[in-house]
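U., I forgot to send this yesterday:
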Amino acid sequence: MHLPDGEPRFGPWLVRRIDDILRGLLRDVGGDVIGDVLGDVVGDVLGDVLDAATGGPPILAVDGRSGSGKTTVAERIAARVPGAAIVHTDDIAWYHAMFDWSSLITEGVLAPLRRGAGIAFRPPEWDERGRPGAVTVPAGCALVVVEGVGIGRRDLAAFFDALVWVQADRAVAWARGLARDGGSAEQAAFWHEWEAEERPFLAVERPWERADLIVDGAPDLPHDPATELVVAAHTA
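Result:
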């Protein structure tokens, strides 16, 4: 497995139920009662209990290199919690900057969520370029999963209840990402440009060192993708 910039190869890998993973990650959010409820109760009561305990939803960060499988992992986690929402850093960073978006996501998304408010955030570039819609999370949301390269950065750590790092072989991630984006020469050039900023950024930030959970983004172990993830037995 090719892992640049000092990222260690995690493992051994094992299959775990997503409900059990969430119970463990969020056990300290509002006390042990949250961990007992999470994963066992499916329905609106989950959101009610979490909001009552914290004043806002639990917020999970899902980080990893481009093409590692972050979006898929975020979607699988969110699918297990009725009323969960996903925020993509790509929407915040759109036509703004590859990694210089901390203030945007703090002011427009994370700080309001921590206050228990719903959001309908339009980054400045959305207005300038006429992009419709907004980054939305309704008030009373049961869980927010924020995914994207760099979301596990140090200056945002205080906003998150847990950090997930998605690991994948760099060549596999590269090939998968290019195929997803169309595989054109222009896309390949953009990936080179992106990696020229991503690699030094991650080499400095090293979010895998602070991760509460490591997920295999290209797993070989048989598992049920709807209910299970392949995770490292140890985070360090």
